[in-house]
Amino acid sequence: MTRRAAVVLLSGGLDSTTILALAASKGFTCHALTFRYGQRHAHELEAALRVAQWADVASHKIISFDLGAIGGSSLTTDAPIPKDRAPETLGHDIPSTYVPARNTIFLSFALAYAEVIGTGDIFIGVNAVDFSGYPDCRPEYIAAFEKMAMLATRAGSEGQRLRIHTPLIDLSKAEIIRIGLELGVDYAMTTSCYDPDAENRACGRCDACALRLQGFSQAGIIDPALYQSA
Amino acid sequence: MTRRAAVVLLSGGLDSTTILALAASKGFTCHALTFRYGQRHAHELEAALRVAQWADVASHKIISFDLGAIGGSSLTTDAPIPKDRAPETLGHDIPSTYVPARNTIFLSFALAYAEVIGTGDIFIGVNAVDFSGYPDCRPEYIAAFEKMAMLATRAGSEGQRLRIHTPLIDLSKAEIIRIGLELGVDYAMTTSCYDPDAENRACGRCDACALRLQGFSQAGIIDPALYQSA
Question: Which ipTM was obtained for this model?
Fold first, then answer.
């Protein structure tokens, strides 16, 4: 069997780590792509490096640019991170942690990398169930990106199929966690918090922590991540 | 009259400089966006800085990232630049100077910047007449990007119109030059060459030089750029 190559967007968080394990389990040779985009903390990058090593990826590229220069998000500027919002209220508005066009930028680089390594398969861990309400996590957005991408590249114009795989898009966080555990993911490698302390312990109070903690709770499993209150 | 803001992608070349002059002449307050993306030479960046100053733009952001790390193009790696191809033969294949997904990456950052400054107007100097055959210069690609972009952002999901303006897309290089000259553009500010020498003199032999020289010739005007053979 010839193994197909895939580009996997890897942030070092729970969703992208599960995606990487899933893509590998489906027989894809995985090429991970991580971004240092001006987020406040380096802890995401450290987690992505740990996860890529654990998954024994075929390659891992880290692309750096500063979205803080463009602004517009509490993740890349000094604006306060929203805290203590109830998980069940999330997804109904777009919070300040929204980074303008972030997934479009990430997928554009993935499209470039996919063309260079000669594949039309890209995996991204977007989720439209237990999510923060970001517009670029919705299925209609992903479908529109696929159509655009087919027209954007040499490969597409020569007839190569381009597929943005989003296997987590309809799953709850608890379901994602169960799938990852079945695939052998150790979620202690991953980080989700928007505002960890100096020792990289999660705050437990931002939207990302709230959704993660709710997911582990609903799955009936203890989150192995370190929290500040622990 | 309230002036509308626009993001203008500015490389410092002939097309993007003309676009900037055009957008300003239509009453847009222009915010220029330039990329240091791993191209071989800094001369493009210097030209973009000159042009932005000349046009007195409202802001000029320069975003840096290394597409050379991804590879796949003679513009960002050590692969040879094609030379001495006849202008009339260009556009029928995709040459090695094609940078995978470049316009998609550029437009994605423009989309982010447009959302932050609160506009839905983006100008890009793509051209599908006297061009090198790049897939991401075609009208159908631009239309697909617009559709995707409307779904990608907070602004789009709140109903804001998003428009990728491509006023040069159907024009010959000679027509573009005539429009620019009417708007007061001094093309000595601009640079087009893919392979200039250490003194930033154009090679006169790459595709970009060939198309530029043919355009000036057809417009009956002397190109004020410095060439190595001059």
Answer: 0.92
